Structure formats: C-alpha cells, structure tokens
Automatic annotation (TrEMBL):
<dbReference type="InterPro" id="IPR029068">
    <property type="entry name" value="Glyas_Bleomycin-R_OHBP_Dase"/>
</dbReference>
<feature type="region of interest" description="Disordered">
    <location>
        <begin position="167"/>
        <end position="206"/>
    </location>
</feature>
<protein>
    <submittedName>
        <fullName>Glyoxalase-like domain protein</fullName>
    </submittedName>
</protein>
Length: 206
C-alpha cells in the first residue's frame, strides 16, 4: 500500500512558514523550503488537522495565529462538528476541526489525524490515478469525495472537487500557477492529473 509520509511547503519566507508548522506541531511531517514558482489565488489544497474536541481546535488556532497565521473562517459549530480555517504567511490553508461539539477534557494542542485535502478537476479520474499507484480507497462518494487508507503516523489523502475544496476553506476557487506543495510518498515521483508534484519521500523532519 502506498502512502504519503511527508509534505513540503514552498515559501518565499521559510522562517515564517516554519513558525506556523512548529506551532501546530506538524514539523515532523511537514517541511518548508525556500522558493517555488509564482502562484496566485487558491492553490487547490488545504491541510487538515482533525482533533478530538472543540477546545483543542481553539488551542491550535490560537497557536497558529500567535505564530503569524491569519483567520479565514473563525471557529464555529456546524452540523458536522466544530472547526476553523487559518492561512499561514506563505498562503497555505489549514483546516482545524473536530467532529465533537463538546469538550470531554482539558484543551490541548494534540490532534489525531493529519489530512491533505486536494481539490481536483475530476475526483473519479484522480482516484483511479492514485489507485493505479498503489493507494487504497478507504471511502468514496462518487465524484464528490474520496479518502485513502494511511498507515499510522502518515498523512491521509482526501479528494474534493476544486470548487468544493475552496468553499470548505472559505476562499474563491480561482487560482493559477504553482501549488507550491510537494507531496512525499513511498511511490515513484510523478505529476498527477491536477499538476500536484509527487516526490520520493525524504526522511521525516525532526
């Protein structure tokens, strides 16, 4: 089974980007490197931290903002749970969410899952592309959503239509240029149908 072990964000201000990663506790799986091709608007993806309770969401959002992130969607309850969306200085979008609407203990900055949410032109076509490269589907809802199995500690992969991903993040779907994201996986390097760059996974950071 193929899986994603690391992500690399490309930034014109690596220190500022790294500060947000450190604050969110993801530096072991998300690295930062300088540069990257020009990019405008929505880059097509979001990184999601799934945590156990609303208090953890608030703690993670506060830490990210203190490290330099800006709030795109304030934390609030919805029919599916509780969550917020922030953006780091490099433009990467972070969704922090819990399926629970009530706290069950003291708030911490712990989270259970790290998920890469890719906005794609055709969920079915992208899903087939990843399956052909050894990824196993965990859940799939036609052309609306697909989620892949991940080993413990790895980054989960999920697919949305691009417009749906942008709406979920609270931004316009318009965007062009580089995704400024490199996906590190235990699969051969390739560029997928939506232009995302997949690299041979480096050793984990930290």
């Amino acid at each position: 089974m193929s899986s994603i072990t690391t992500l690399t964000l490309e930034s014109t201000d690596p220190e500022a980007t790294a500060a947000v990663c450190d604050a969110l506790g993801v530096s072991d799986r998300i690295g930062v490197r300088a540069g990257g091709a020009p990019s405008q608007g929505f880059r097509g993806y979001a990184i999601s931290l799934v945590t156990a309770q609303p208090g953890n969401v608030d703690a993670l959002v506060a830490a990210a903002v203190a490290a330099g992130a800006s709030v795109l969607k304030p934390a609030e309850k919805s029919f599916w749970g509780y969550g917020a969306v922030v953006q780091s200085p490099d433009g990467a979008i972070w969704k922090i969410a819990s399926s629970s609407k009530k706290d069950s203990g003291p708030a911490t900055r712990e989270f259970d899952d790290l998920v890469l949410l890719l906005g794609v032109a055709d969920v079915k076509a992208s899903k087939a592309s990843y399956v052909a490269r050894g990824f196993e589907v965990a859940r799939s809802f036609g052309g609306k959503y697909a989620e892949f199995t991940a080993a413990p500690g790895d980054v989960k992969l999920a697919l949305y239509p691009r417009k749906g991903a942008a709406k979920d993040a609270g931004v316009s779907p318009e965007g062009s240029g580089s995704h400024r994201l490199a996906i590190g996986a235990d699969a051969d390097p390739f560029t997928d149908p939506d232009g995302y760059t997949w690299e041979a996974a480096p050793q984990r950071v930290g």
